[in-house]
Amino acid sequence: MHVIILGAPGSGKGTQSAEIVKQFELQHLSTGDMLRAEISQGTELGLAAKSVIDKGELVSDKIILGMVAEQIKNNTKGMLFDGFPRTIAQAEGLDKLLKGLESEITHVVQLDVDNEELVTRMLDRGREDDNEETIRNRLEVFNRQTAPLIDYYREQNKLSTVLGNGSVKEIFARIQKILSS
Ligand code: AP5
Ligand code: MG
User: In sequence order, what DSSP letters do the residues of 137-166 get, joined into one string?
Assistant: First the structure.
């Protein structure tokens, strides 16, 4: 089983991923966490990514696909992709990588949360890229570059949309139902 958790910034991808990987014994692969690790280690990649992340733009598909390929090449477990793919090019790249492993995405769970709630959650959290200007751009970038993935996976009959409002537990119960069926 290989799962994508898809949703706008602040929709709860990371929060739900922590629950999902425990229950379904998947490997969590968050490109955002990987990039923040590169930044905190002060690598060249991290340095280049930081200015992009601070503006709320997307890091290049080439860098992201390279990072993901490195992570999954020796993987034997099911994977949970969080914050990736974020563009059609990344989705196609992922399809290719998985095909090379004679595998494919089995489920795409989309978390649906209204914009006002997203902004409130992120301002409450206050990560470095959680300031009002960057948040506004992240939401725009999501609508422009990532939202097309909803149709991409719907056309493949892989998409399930979950209401992302409510308690963490309630939302997880909705996801659990989808991944168990
Ligand atoms: P990334 O780290 O992926 O951030 P994001 O998509 O903007 O999403 P967040 O991590 O902010 O939110 P989340 O959905 O994980 O929600 P969370 O669980 O934290 O990416 C950061 C940047 O890296 C991007 O902008 C881009 O520059 C770059 N990047 C990363 N991947 C890339 C890629 N593939 N391609 C190109 N660039 C890439 O929850 C948010 C808050 O809400 C938390 O405080 C949480 O406690 C709270 N919360 C969660 N659930 C609930 C609930 N049910 N009720 C109330 N509060 C809740
Ligand atoms: Mg996250």
Answer: HHHHHIIIIITHHHHHHHHTT-EEEEE--S
The CA distance from 63 to 19, in Å, is 28
Helices 168-180, 13-24: axis angle to 10 degrees equals: 50
Q: What is the DSSP track for 14-31? A: HHHHHHHHHHHT-EEEEH
**Helix, strand, coil: what percent of the chain each, to 5?**
60, 15, 30
Is the Cβ atom of 135 under 6 angstroms away from ligand 1? no
Beta strands in 34-147 (DSSP E): 79-82, 107-112
Catalytic residues: 13, 86, 125, 127, 138
Beta-carbon count within 10 A of 5 CB: 25
pLDDT in tens, 29-77: 999 999 999 999 999 999 999 999 999 999 999 999 999 999 998 788 9
Task: Give dist(CA 97, CA 151) in Å, integer.
Answer: 21
Protein residues near ligand 2, an ion, with CB under 5 A: 13-14
Under the phi-then-psi rule, with left for phi > 0, alpha for psi from -120 to 50, and beta for the rest, what region is 157?
left
